[in-house]
TrEMBL record, chain A:
<comment type="subunit">
    <text>UreD, UreF and UreG form a complex that acts as a GTP-hydrolysis-dependent molecular chaperone, activating the urease apoprotein by helping to assemble the nickel containing metallocenter of UreC. The UreE protein probably delivers the nickel.</text>
</comment>
<keyword id="KW-0963">Cytoplasm</keyword>
<dbReference type="InterPro" id="IPR002639">
    <property type="entry name" value="UreF"/>
</dbReference>
<comment type="similarity">
    <text>Belongs to the UreF family.</text>
</comment>
<protein>
    <recommendedName>
        <fullName>Urease accessory protein UreF</fullName>
    </recommendedName>
</protein>
<keyword id="KW-0143">Chaperone</keyword>
<comment type="function">
    <text>Required for maturation of urease via the functional incorporation of the urease nickel metallocenter.</text>
</comment>
<dbReference type="InterPro" id="IPR038277">
    <property type="entry name" value="UreF_sf"/>
</dbReference>
<keyword id="KW-0996">Nickel insertion</keyword>
From TrEMBL, chain B:
<comment type="subunit">
    <text>UreD, UreF and UreG form a complex that acts as a GTP-hydrolysis-dependent molecular chaperone, activating the urease apoprotein by helping to assemble the nickel containing metallocenter of UreC. The UreE protein probably delivers the nickel.</text>
</comment>
<dbReference type="InterPro" id="IPR002669">
    <property type="entry name" value="UreD"/>
</dbReference>
<dbReference type="Pfam" id="PF01774">
    <property type="entry name" value="UreD"/>
</dbReference>
<keyword id="KW-0963">Cytoplasm</keyword>
<keyword id="KW-0143">Chaperone</keyword>
<comment type="similarity">
    <text>Belongs to the UreD family.</text>
</comment>
<keyword id="KW-0996">Nickel insertion</keyword>
<comment type="function">
    <text>Required for maturation of urease via the functional incorporation of the urease nickel metallocenter.</text>
</comment>
<protein>
    <recommendedName>
        <fullName>Urease accessory protein UreD</fullName>
    </recommendedName>
</protein>
Length: 232, 274
């Protein structure tokens, strides 16, 4: 159920549109390694991979960071935001995933400051340009979502949805799957998203960056794959 | 109640090319063996003796280690870290390490073996100056239980924070809670039983060095699933999934020996495991 005004809804739809040029379509975050290993080959195995990605990595990284950033903004704890920006970067040990996140984050921050007059986002942009912050999509999304007036829970769920929906598009192109199968997957993942958002509420700052060993291995291994479609 | 079950504080310094303890203090169940000098490079080897063969419920251990300017040390353990059942309180191991200008630490503990229903919390904070060098490596086994079941422990939580000139450059948060999970599934352990982590940091760990190392040791031909990636400072992280301690020690040994030879002209490690 939407708890957002129509204006907020439209802005949120814009940010979650798979055509939104964040650059996320360049990154598989390890999916491509599993494809090359023959572990992700069809809709069923891709669904398993996506659920694993959400539950074993996303909630502890981008999901939790989005929630914590939103809370820090609400309490005007800006220093915590910059600390989170650094923590999210240094916990991301696979270089390609780390640089991918930084690129997407930077892109979102730039686009956001072009669209809105949002002092926090402008501040973030200046810090990134001065190399005093790295730039992270989850933090950028939290700042933007709060600026356009959506609730914390909706923000986290929307960030989860838009990240996974980019990934589904990547899978559809690369595995490949039919567009209809891709949409079925997104629909079938709704309970996974809902449960992940519930679990996210229970986590604490202590849980940030919890490692999913195999997935992290695949993200590091991707650097050494010779023929590839994605940058991570 | 004693605050620490065991505590160890060690400060080592370089004395005319040879590293020696400037200050050692230990209390309770924590002991350290006599320093050894297995080669002629002045690097000191210390063996930390694990308490009575294993950790039990509510044990709390603290280690504080400082290497002064240009000091070189290798710290290892005498046997694997065994954690027994912890019905009430998890075992806590806290380590604080400071590496001063030009110092070099090899931190190579034996593998962690958690028994059925064990909980273990390890927190390691390393503060290094930009000119210091570090190799740390750790292996987590699937544990031990009477019926041979793997992953029967309750929780292993290992947190590592590394700071360089006061800024955090690495955060590693491994938290394994096997209950109700298929630990061997895709994305978790991917069919493997052992998890290894290694961090190598130092000004000499440039992208070119890393590339050359991977080529020369034939990284892609080594056994196990090995991920290696550059950090945000000169250095790299390794995450390895494998099926035995010996396999991981073999791979880690190849990398450690390569790095210490290239950076410091040192011979192979004089340890039983590497």
């Amino acid at each position: 159920m939407w708890d957002t005004s129509t204006d907020s809804l439209l802005s949120l739809l814009q940010w979650c549109d798979s055509n939104f040029p964040s650059g996320a379509f360049n990154h598989s975050f390890g999916l491509e390694t599993y494809m090359q290993e023959g572990k992700v080959v069809d809709k069923a195995t891709f669904a398993d991979w996506l659920a694993m990605y959400v539950n074993e990595q996303f909630i502890y990284s981008d999901g939790l960071a989005c929630r914590l950033a939103f809370e820090a903004l609400t309490d005007s704890r800006l220093d915590d935001i910059w600390e989170l920006d650094r923590l999210m970067t240094v916990q991301n040990l696979p270089r390609e995933s780390r640089e991918g996140a930084r690129r997407i984050g930077e892109r979102m921050i730039k686009l956001g400051t072009e669209l809105y007059d949002c002092p926090h986002l402008q501040h973030y942009r200046e810090r990134v340009e001065a190399k005093r912050a790295f730039g992270h999509p989850a933090i950028a999304f939290a700042i933007i979502a709060r600026h356009v007036g959506v609730s914390k829970r909706t923000a986290v769920l929307a960030h989860l949805y838009s990240s996974v929906s980019s990934m589904v598009q990547n899978g559809v192109r690369a595995i490949p799957l039919g567009q209809t199968e891709g949409q079925k997957l997104l629909y079938e993942l709704q309970p996974v998203f809902q449960e992940a958002a519930e679990r996210l509420e229970e986590l604490t700052g202590d849980d940030i960056g919890i490692v999913s060993p195999g997935l992290e291995w695949s993200q590091m291994k991707h650097e050494r794959i010779h023929i590839r479609l994605f940058m991570s | 109640m004693q605050r620490w079950t065991g505590m160890l504080r060690l400060t080592a310094e370089n004395r005319q090319g040879r590293t020696a303890a400037a200050h050692v203090y230990h209390q309770g169940a924590y002991k350290i063996a006599r320093p050894m000098y297995p080669d002629d490079t002045g690097q000191v080897y210390y063996y930390v003796m694990n308490p009575g063969g294993g950790y039990v419920d509510g044990d709390r251990y603290l280690m504080e280690l400082e290497l002064g300017e240009h000091a070189q040390a290798l710290i290892t353990t005498q046997s694997s870290t065994k954690i027994y059942r912890t019905p009430h309180q998890p075992v806590l191991q806290l380590s604080e390490v400071a590496l001063k200008h030009g110092s070099y630490l090899e931190w190579l503990p034996d593998p962690i073996i958690a028994y059925r229903n064990a909980r273990y919390e390890q927190r390691t904070v390393i503060r290094m100056e930009r000119s210091a060098s570090l190799i740390c490596a750790e292996i987590i086994t699937p544990g031990w239980s009477p019926d041979g079941a793997q992953f029967a422990y309750d929780e292993l939580a290992l947190k590592t924070e590394i700071y360089m000139d006061e800024q955090q450059i690495l955060f590693d948060n491994v938290k394994l809670r096997p209950h109700g999970k298929q630990m061997l599934s895709m994305g978790r352990m991917d069919g493997q039983t052992h998890l290894g982590s290694m961090f190598v940091i130092g000004e000499q760990a440039t992208p070119e060095f890393i590339e050359q190392m991977c080529d020369e040791i034939g990284l892609d031909t080594l056994p196990g699933r090995i991920g290696l990636s550059q950090l945000i400072v000169p250095g790299f992280a390794i995450r390895m999934l494998g099926n035995s301690t010996q396999q991981m020690e073999k791979v880690f040994g190849i990398i450690i020996n390569y790095v210490r030879q290239q950076w410091f002209g040192k011979e192979r490690l004089a340890l039983r495991k590497y």
